[in-house]
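Batch manifest, entry 17 of 40.
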Amino acid sequence: MWMLLQQAGMLGASIVGSGEQPFPWIHMDDTISALNLMMENEDISGPVNFVAPQIVDNSQFTHALANACSSIVQKQMTLPEFLVRIMYGTERADNILLDSPKVVPQTLLDLGFEFQHKDIDSAMVAMVKALQECTNPSSGSGLFKYAVGKRKKAAK
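Output type: structure tokens
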């Protein structure tokens, strides 16, 4: 998330390709809670999908990121598919970034797992708030000083 916010602060939030491909996500709090559940429950076997129950596409994810980071994200852009393939290689771009699977956390749901962050908008706001607190913006350090400084330089 740190690197994603740095990129968003410097370049803007980027929709990848058409933006219509599914974009599995999960908040760190839910990841930790799910890991704790797995360690406490010996009956769990097989794969467990660590993703939020809300399925969003890349465009929805990008808009949620931009809205949560409105203090540092001034613009949104679209990375065309050909450019994504050049940057990441055709196989990686096609299999991961441009055509993601719809993933459901079925095992967690069957176990009655309670997600703290069920929707992308509240999850993004919570992550940005947590990063702001961790980077101590009142002291002028961390991500937000870096991102705002880059934005000011670009505006000149």
